[in-house]
Amino acid sequence: MAENRSVPPLVRTLALDVAAPLAVFYGLHAWGVGDVPALLASAVPPLLHAGYTGLRERRVDAIGVAVLAATLLSLLATLLGSGGPRELLARGVWLTAPFGLWTLASAFTRRPLCFTVSRSMMPGRVVVMDRLWETNARFRRAWRDITITWGAVSLTDSALRLVMAYTLPVAWVPALDTALTFVTIAALQPPTWFFLWRAGVWNELFGRRRVAA
């Protein structure tokens, strides 16, 4: 059997949506390219990734589409505003602010966004999650608390990105913006674990499943 040499999706995403934009921006910057062209060029790798995903895997890459939308909106703000790089540096706000508001609003709907997304990412736990959702009020409360937390943190993330974009030196912001993404993701894990642990469902969700005799 031939060895499967395909690149794991997570590795491809980190390479094209995280590392490549930084490499493009700082590489062009080192060659003397202006801030605005370098920032626009840094959006190309995620867009290529979105096109690759759509053509090869016949599905829409949400990250790529979001990056495209944020880039177009920030470019429009640049054209209508100062014409400088600050609006482009703030393009992450066009991603995190709507996500935060949408997440907060979903906490009060039938199924909060964080529950829906987590359910889709854990296909092996769908049956357990659906059963707990229907029968366990503490489980439902945990996911609403998780969703509110994620929404609040996302809006805080947006505010920090906005401050960085308009106050820090231009060359600092792309690296700090990427670092903030990882910090935000890491910061969201402990409260998520805590709410599930407090609801008393941690072992049922993530413990080793019993194999039927």
Task: Describe the fold and architecture.
With 213 residues, the protein is mainly α. The protein folds into 2 domains: 1-84, no CATH class; 92-213. The protein has helices spanning 9-30, 35-42, 44-56, 62-80, 86-89, 93-106, 113-121, 126-135, 137-167, 173-198, 202-206. Helix 1 (9-30) runs antiparallel to helix 3 (44-56) and helix 6 runs antiparallel to helix 9. It is elongated. The two termini are 32 Å apart. The mean pLDDT is 84. It comes from Pseudonocardia humida. The chain crosses the membrane at residues 62-82, 88-109, 148-173, 179-200.
> Which parts are unreliable, with pLDDT below 50 for 5 consecutive residues or more?
none
Question: In percent, how much strand structure appears in the residues?
Answer: under 5%
Elements, N to C (H/E): HHHHHHHHHHH
The secondary-structure class comes to mainly alpha
Biggest pleated sheet = none
Mean pLDDT: 84
Shape: elongated
The proportion of residues forming helix, as a percent range, comes to: over 70%
Distance N to C terminus: 32 Å
Number of strands: 0
Structural Rg: 20 Å
Number of helices: 11
Instruction: Give the number of domains.
Output: 2
Transmembrane segments: 62-82, 88-109, 148-173, 179-200
Organism: Pseudonocardia humida
Keywords: Membrane, Transmembrane, Transmembrane helix
Protein name: Intracellular septation protein A
